[in-house]
Amino acid sequence: MVGIKAAAVTGPGSVALKEVERPRPGEGEVRIRLEGCGVCASNLGPWAGPEWMEFPLPPGDLGHEGWGVVDAIGPGVANVGMGDRVAALTYRAYAEADIAQADAVLRLPPELDGKPFPGEPLGCAFNIFRRSDIRPGQTVAIIGIGFLGAVLTKLASDAGARVIAISRRSESLELARSYGAAETIPMDDHQAIVDRVGQLTGGALCERVIECVGKQWPLDLAGELIGFGGKLVVAGYHQDGPRQVSMQSWNWKGIDVVNAHERDLAVQMQGMREAAEAVASGRLDPAPLYTHAYPLDRLAEALDATRDKPEGFVKALVLFE
């Protein structure tokens, strides 16, 4: 059987390109010849090589933002056909092909032909937006303007909210303005940010705060920016250990805290469908966010760029020929 190329993380900061057997779909599965895979910031924990990691990782592992064309179908699959262009929830997509459960596959509309579509992170943004329960006229602070924060800025501003974007880099704040942010604040001085948001809201602070960084300080900041009875939405991926929170403040303000990462497959697929419809209709254009592209044999560079964020960086894609 003809093999495929797959990238295997062999140790902290190290990748090897391997040739492995082309996978075969089983009952209820399809095989996808991948066109590309987005690079997720959640990869950076394993990439750093924490003590609990065991190397090498299986070939293709960590890649979970793939899209491509169905080229093999297992028994019992009725929702997709050979040659369909799809996005899917798979987990070894740093490879030329991967296997997906049929119910984790989304057929892409023709308007997306030839365009990258990392469905998992786009669907994640739409699910976070839904969980945030944003309403017209609200003030929404979004902390951390990368890929996720930029998409959420667009969705929240289109919903009629006044978005205050908070981020470290000036180019990230410019990106937020281009996606609809009404106000931008550099993320440098904690008290200065709190004071500025207080000025912008007449002391009422924000009805919604979405934390998109995944670190302790942004979570602390989110707790200070949320107003009485508001919703603090944790969208950042907190993977590097426990967090401390000011329960006194959270109790006093009577806030709702929403952990907005979805793990239910049906909900994940709902988000992906909503994202595909939005991009196909032109309501959302994520193309400016795909700033860096790499072939599979340069996956290490893509992961380093995701960590180091060179000038102009928002999101990296691994693209296959």
UniProtKB/TrEMBL annotation:
CDD domains: Zn_ADH9
Cofactor(s) needed: Zn(2+)
Top-level division of the source organism's lineage: Bacteria
UniProt domain Alcohol dehydrogenase-like C-terminal: residue ranges: 148-259
Signal peptide segment: none
Keywords per UniProt: Metal-binding, Oxidoreductase, Zinc
Gene3D superfamilies to which the protein is assigned, alphabetical: Medium-chain alcohol dehydrogenases, catalytic domain, NAD(P)-binding Rossmann-like Domain
Xref: SUPFAM superfamilies: GroES-like, NAD(P)-binding Rossmann-fold domains
Alcohol dehydrogenase-like N-terminal domain mapped to chain residues: 26-88
Family statement drawn from the similarity comment of this UniProt entry: Belongs to the zinc-containing alcohol dehydrogenase family.
PANTHER family: L-THREONINE 3-DEHYDROGENASE
Protein name: Zinc-binding dehydrogenase
Native source organism of the sequence: Qipengyuania benthica
Taxon lineage: Bacteria, Pseudomonadati, Pseudomonadota, Alphaproteobacteria, Sphingomonadales
